[in-house]
Amino acid sequence: MSPTRPRTYPFVALVGQDRLRTALLLNLVSPEIGGVLIVGERGTAKSTAARGLTELAPAITTMLGCPFRCEPGHAQDCCEACQGASEQEIVEMASPFVHLPIGATEDRLLGSLDLDRVLQKGERALQPGLLASAHRGVLYIDEVNLLADHLVDALLDASASGQVTIERDGVTASHASRFVLVGSMNPDEGRLRPQLLDRFGLTVEVAAPREPGPRSEIVRRRLAFDADPVGFCRQWEQEQYALRDRIVTARQRRSAIATDDAILGVIAGICAEAGVEGLRADITMLRAAQAFAAWSGDESVTEAHVDAVKEMVLEHRRREPPNRRPSSSNPPPNHEQPPSDRERSPTSPPPPPGDESSSESSSTPNATAPREQVFAPRQASAKLPEVPPVASVRSASADARGDRQPKHGRGEVVRSVPDPKPRELDLQASVRNALERGAVQSGLPQLDRSDLKSRERDRRTQRLIVFVVDASGSMGARRRMELVKGAVLALLDQTRTARDEVALIAFRGTEAELVLAPCRDAREAERQMRSLTTGGRTPLAHALAEASSLIERHLGEGGRSASLLVLSDGRANVALGDPAGDPWRQSLEQAKRLAEQLAGIGGVARVYDTEEGFVKLGRTQELASTLGADLEPIARLTELAPVAT
After folding, report:
1. Where are the alpha helices (DSSP H) in 255-347?
2. Which residue numbers delimit the VWFA domain (predicted)?
3. What's this model's pTM, rounded to 2 decimal places?
4. Is the pLDDT at 379 greater than 80, yes or no?
């Protein structure tokens, strides 16, 4: 292997992780598959496996001196310099493996003004970014779920078009950018934006082996590598060469692999049964099956090849992932858990309308559980509460929280503005100003105060919207849960465009449950809301305590805005902690704590009153007052809903 990169852990030395290795190798055989998303806990060789591709990807040929790695014989994809050259020397080079740090700037990703050219020759030229460096190779992103939104947007554009167009700093350029996208993430640290998730061709979940034998072998090999990287790599060198040769052979065979209509029908049936959106899964499954056939040395695609790849294609595309709970705290498989309140079998009919609280508050051992139901949503119209601008919020609350607003470096740079005393100098824009007014001496720009520009950043942050939904038995009376679900779905629809983070807390029985951890996946939130079960008592204090903890964690992780939406009738009847405590008083205590949190960050709250009927306790009015929240009757949302035609 290459002597310049001795510290890359050999791919062939990995222990286990067969599906992961297969997914990565298939992408080297057929880069059109679309890359691999590796999902798993820490310490499961996610990044080690990805970096192992460095020594396996087949070499590429390109034009000598071309920073964009243009491919000979593909003039339509070449940069302007290569297109205009009459003759150019062709060279062979290692396939690129580029790591995109999650803290990278947009300039680093896309490219920017080449300051060396400006300062040395007074010429404007593009300094290629990481997308140019990754062309025809692998782009790897560790913790891809934590990647900044503006970088995700740029990646999506490049992935969809295979091109990068830059118009900035007085430079206009375009170049091809096709790469195998490999990302790794720990699901406990947050979800991936759905738009980027769908761009990954394959997904593989990994876990550390449970058996002592493989675990000890992994440790043994890792210690040997750390002690003598060069010697360890030399031990595996022949196997690495053999694997790379097999990749080259399979890539050459791929275009000759036959696929008949019967296989297309099999793939279409599998994808239709999984309920995937669009046809990207069908195309990816076909490409992966073709690559697997080429890898296996076969001449045509069979159902066995499709079976080998289908789960990797569908893992992240199924509308209802099998055997998957919405929370990130899933118990390990094959470990029996006591049935939750939600899972217990119904044994009695619901209480009569208007008397739902009496049966819910029963705590005798022989009391029968109320019937559990799943209601379909009813059409409703609701609007998210508005929040004040972040800047004004921070100035009012920074002292209260002990924080100081950062002077610079936070938020995406949106423009440069003239500033003779810049707080955050935009050097490139300042140099460009000097060049534009002709202030050049001995080939170098001469700057004065009038040329200086400061970066202006977009300090807006997506807020966290916490839905606290009453799913107790009282919500089944008069089918109120139908309207509650309709209201939440209407609110969720608005978060798609605002790209807010959402979290869903449901409370019923004896506890509150974080049904959906904070994420930007409105579709997943919608799925969880539609399937939410109704029945049991009303642990309102538990839900408000969970919401308070969630917002506190959000602020501790750098969040700066939050909204709380409570949908309930306020009929709390489950004590928090002390069984002798007053559930309603405890609920108000938690509401007061939440009000203080939201006031400190300029957050807003709203209570949707679900109580109906002639006899009303009116508790939601006091709850809203304690929270400092607006109060809106849930019944009014049907009056605002558009009439179906």
Report:
1. 261-274, 280-296, 303-314
2. 464-645
3. 0.66
4. no
